[in-house]
Each structure stands twice: as structure tokens, then as C-alpha cells.
């Protein structure tokens, strides 16, 4: 039934949040003459009263952007951390976050994936081994335009921290640990800011394209208990920058935990830390770190992709592997890992499946090169990696049809392109284990798989990113 829209675009409204939908979208049910009208407000918590701006107004619902929380929810608890845009639900107890993530994903699989018994097929909801300080990388921005969360105002001044939610210019100075990453480096950010301001260095101004300090990106190895830091600057004030003094300062701050310090020169106006022209110098220690997952060693450079919460990724992978190996392995000779990235799953498959040919297919050549290197270092020689688009690869290799018992696939957030999924189906595998960082696209793909005779047997959900809206899913399909 259509009704009159109670709100128009750009209107500022005050809303009480009643419930939560998939992806952590707060739901406000507004009383109108025609009944209840729904407004979705991402980054809000049931029970909050918020000020929001309508960005889309349809007859049946509207979407709004959070401007400010006016009254907190009775569900929220005090946190000792600096609030950041990347952790909008940190004040909601983790058990409550799990409840919302679980219920909204079940509902999504029911509604979009057409899985009527989605609640019964949930095998396990797995929490992250650590609910706090679980991340292994963070990117901080320097800015000449600051943001003050208390007054909600911008000001001219040197800051180092995270950008204000939803925009790219102003940055709020991170004053202490955010609860997500490494407390030692985050508690030290004010001192790093002071280091540069006391020596008269300027911060990047995103509109004027001027300034020296641009980004501080940090990678952390849990197994080495150390940090690899990349300072990104322009060349504008380079003649005054004393690298040795900066190294000494950082060593003093971090001690033995400083594994490497890289200085990247980036004069591009684009808002990205890494440049393409290679002006990167290791000014202290080493330029890569290593991490361990399920007993395998991975070398991580500044550029390479690696799971952001390794301890939780380990649980996710173990679950995926259990789904692959819990049924009778079958006699077909090939196992395929599609969208294989840096080859983590491929190598874990090789650990447990020595008599099969194991194939990884991944689009990004750099990731494939990393995968080959780590596979060699970990002693696997029954692996083949192809740098190719999955759809194109399958078109060019019809010989794998009927040769596979199990396909593992871990596509990006956008899911699997419909044409590519049809090619995967044509391989005629007996089982598919589908790992997804976006259950919304996985739900869409479930419909295509069901039409092709692949029945969802069970799935597990993994809370890889506590305090955010994200949830990972691993699902087993059988023909
Ligand atoms: C979620 S990641 C998979 C991570 C991988 N399992 C790992 O542990 O490193 C998805 C991967 O799919 C790759 N990708 C995206 N589109 C692709 C395509 N059309 N064909 C092949 N790979 C693709 C991305 O580059 C990315 O590495």
C-alpha cells in the first residue's frame, strides 16, 4: 500500500530508533496518518534518539544519515576508548551485537535467499577470539582541518587520526586507544602529532593540496608482536625532515616493537597513501612483517592484502575446511579455490588433501605472486595458481568439468557475477563451500545455486569485525 511521504530529501529530522536491520541499519518507525513509515539510519542503536538528514524519500520508506545522537540508548555502556567512525556499535555490549547480527542475517537469508528454514540451518555463530584490539592494520590521516566531536565544528589546525564520518577533509585528533587496534601506537598518536608541530611541519590540506604530513599507516604482526609503520609525506618540506631524528623518536616511543619504519613520498593530489611511482624507503628495520595462520607463515608487505583479524580468520577458515572435509572426500582429482587472494585457503586445503591437484584462481597478479611465494616457503608443491578472472578462466578451461568434488569460493563483497556463477555451476562439482564477507550478495547467489540444484545444507556466521556492521558467512551447498 502506498502512502504519502512524511519527509522530503535533505530534511533534518529527530528520530527514535526502534530496531535494527541487516548491516546495522537502525530502523525508526514513524507514526503517520497512513500508519507506520520506516526510516533507516545506519550507524545507530535501538533506543537512541538521533538527529538525522533524509537522503532518500520513497513512498514506503526513507533513508537518512546520522547527524548526532541526542539521547543514548539504555542498551549502551560506557567505554574507555576514543570513539571512532569505524566502530559505531562499540557502546553496545558484544552479546547484543551478536544477537542483532545473527537475527538480521537469518532474516536476510529467508527473505532474499529464499531459505525458509534459515534459522534451522545455522550451524554455529562464532565470535571473534578477541572482541577488542583485534585489527592488524590501521590507516591514520594527517589534516590541516580539524574536527571537534564535542562542538561538532571544524577548525584550522594540525590533526592526526580518523576522518569525520562520511567526509574526506577534516580529521579528529585521536587522543587515545580506539579499542580496535594496537593500544601502544594509538596512545602515542598525540605525541607523534606534537613531534611534527613542534618542528613547524604542516599537515596536508585536502582542498588546497598543500602541506607535508599525509598519512601514517601501521601494520601489526601478532606473532612477532611488533609494528611496521609507513609515514607518508609530500616532498614540500623534505629538506627540513631529519629521518634519523624521527627514527630515534619512534624507537623511543615503541622500543623493540618497532619492526620497521618506511618513508613514502607522495605528491599526488589523490587521497591515497600508496603511490605508484615507487618513492618508498625503509628508513629503519625491515619493510615486511610475517604472520601465522593455522601454522602457516605469511609474509606481509605494506601493499599486500591480509585478513584484518587473523585470529578470527583462523576460525572462519577452520570452519570452511571442516565443511570441505567432513563428508566423504570423493574420488575426483581436483579441488578448486576460486577468488583465492593470497592463497590462504588454497594452502590450508593442501595441508589436508595431499593426493589432489589444488588450483587457486585470483584476478590480482600481485596477490598470486604472494600466494606462490608463501606456498613455496610453506613447502607445498601440489598447488597451481592462475592469475585470471574466474569467469574467463573457466571459459578457457572446460577440461575441469566433472573433475571436481568440492569448490571453495571466497568472492569480494560484490559477490559472484551472475555469468561467472553460471560457469562455476557448469563445472558440475558435488559440493560448494561459499565463504562471504557480504551475506547480502551471498543470499542473492543462493537463489541461483538453488535453481541449479545446489541445496544449502548449513552455514556458520563469524563475527570478524566486532563493533562494526560486518558479518562473515561460510555456507555448504550440495547437489
Ligand atoms: C575476499 S578476497 C579472498 C581472499 C582469499 N580467500 C585470501 O585468503 O587471501 C576476494 C578476492 O577475489 C579477487 N577477485 C575479485 N574479482 C575477481 C574475479 N573476477 N576473478 C578472480 N578473482 C577476483 C580479489 O582480488 C580478492 O583477492
From TrEMBL:
One of the GO BP terms on file: rRNA base methylation
Binding sites annotated in the UniProt record for S-adenosyl-L-methionine: 307, 339, 362, 410
Keyword Methyltransferase: yes
Keyword hit for Methyltransferase: yes
Gene Ontology terms for molecular function: rRNA (uridine-C5-)-methyltransferase activity
TRAM domain location: 6-68
Keywords associated with the record: Methyltransferase, S-adenosyl-L-methionine, Transferase
Catalytic residues of the enzyme: 437, 437 (nucleophile)
Lineage: superkingdom: Bacteria
Pfam family, one: tRNA_U5-meth_tr
Gene3D superfamilies: 2.40.50.1070, Nucleic acid-binding proteins (2.40.50.140), Vaccinia Virus protein VP39 (3.40.50.150)
UniProt record similarity statement: Belongs to the class I-like SAM-binding methyltransferase superfamily. RNA M5U methyltransferase family.
UniProt xrefs under PANTHER family: RNA M5U METHYLTRANSFERASE (PTHR11061), TRNA (URACIL(54)-C(5))-METHYLTRANSFERASE (PTHR11061:SF30)
Protein's UniProt name: 23S rRNA (Uracil-5-)-methyltransferase RumA
Amino acid at each position: 500500500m502506498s502512502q504519502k511521504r512524511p519527509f522530503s530529501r535533505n530534511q533534518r529530522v529527530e528520530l527514535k530508533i526502534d530496531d535494527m536491520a541487516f548491516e546495522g541499519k537502525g530502523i525508526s518507525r514513524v507514526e503517520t496518518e497512513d500508519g507506520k513509515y520506516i526510516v533507516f539510519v545506519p550507524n545507530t542503536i535501538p533506543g537512541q534518539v538521533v538527529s538525522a538528514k533524509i537522503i532518500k524519500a520513497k513512498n514506503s520508506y526513507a533513508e537518512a544519515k546520522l547527524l548526532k545522537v541526542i539521547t543514548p540508548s539504555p542498551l549502551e555502556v560506557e567505554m574507555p576508548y576514543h570513539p571512532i567512525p569505524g566502530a559505531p556499535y562499540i557502546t553496545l555490549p558484544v552479546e547484543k551485537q551478536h544477537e542483532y547480527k545473527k537475527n538480521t542475517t537469518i532474516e536476510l537469508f529467508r527473505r532474499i535467499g529464499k531459505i525458509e528454514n534459515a534459522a534451522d540451518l545455522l550451524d554455529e555463530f562464532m565470535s571473534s577470539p578477541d572482541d577488542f584490539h583485534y585489527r592488524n592494520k590501521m590507516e591514520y590521516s594527517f589534516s590541516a582541518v580539524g574536527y571537534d566531536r564535542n562542538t561538532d565544528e571544524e577548525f584550522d589546525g594540525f590533526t592526526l587520526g580518523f576522518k569525520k564520518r562520511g567526509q574526506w577533509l577534516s580529521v579528529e585528533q585521536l587522543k587515545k586507544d580506539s579499542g580496535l587496534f594496537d593500544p601502544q601506537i594509538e596512545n602515542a598518536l598525540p605525541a607523534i602529532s606534537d613531534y611534527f608541530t613542534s618542528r613547524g611541519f604542516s599537515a596536508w590540506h585536502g582542498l588546497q593540496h598543500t602541506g607535508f604530513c599525509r598519512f601514517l599507516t601501521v601494520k601489526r604482526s601478532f606473532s612477532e608482536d611488533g609494528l611496521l609503520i609507513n609515514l607518508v609525506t609530500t616532498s614540500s618540506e623534505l629538506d627540513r625532515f631529519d629521518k634519523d631524528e624521527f627514527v630515534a623518536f619512534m624507537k623511543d616511543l615503541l622500543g623493540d616493537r618497532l619492526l620497521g619504519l618506511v618513508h613514502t613520498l607522495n605528491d599526488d593530489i589523490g587521497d591515497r597513501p600508496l603511490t605508484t611511482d615507487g618513492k618508498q624507503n625503509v628508513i629503519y628495520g625491515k619493510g615486511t612483517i610475517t604472520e601465522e595462520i593455522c601454522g602457516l607463515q605469511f609474509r606481509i608487505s605494506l601493499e599486500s592484502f591480509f585478513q584484518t583479524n587473523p585470529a578470527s580468520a583462523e576460525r572462519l577458515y577452520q570452519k570452511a575446511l571442516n565443511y570441505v572435509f567432513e563428508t566423504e572426500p570423493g574420488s575426483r582429482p581436483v579441488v578448486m579455490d576460486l577468488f583465492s587472494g593470497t592463497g590462504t585457503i588454497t594452502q590450508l586445503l593442501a595441508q589436508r588433501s595431499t593426493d589432489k591437484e589444488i588450483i587457486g584462481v585470483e584476478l590480482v597478479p600481485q596477490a598470486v605472486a604472494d600466494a606462490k611465494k608463501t606456498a613455496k616457503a610453506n613447502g607445498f608443491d601440489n598447488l597451481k595458481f592462475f592469475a585470471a578472472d574466474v569467469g574467463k578462466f573457466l571459459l578457457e578451461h572446460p577440461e575441469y568439468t566433472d573433475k571436481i568434488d568440492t569448490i571453495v569460493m571466497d568472492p569480494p563483497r560484490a559477490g559472484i557475477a551472475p555469468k561467472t556463477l553460471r560457469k562455476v555451476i557448469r563445472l558440475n562439482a558435488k559440493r560448494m563451500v561459499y565463504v562471504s564477507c557480504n551475506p547480502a550478495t551471498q543470499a542473492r547467489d543462493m537463489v541461483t545455486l538453488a535453481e541449479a540444484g545446489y541445496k544449502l545444507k548449513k552455514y556458520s556466521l563469524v563475527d570478524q569485525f566486532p563493533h562494526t556492521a560486518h558479518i562473515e558467512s561460510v555456507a555448504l551447498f550440495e547437489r
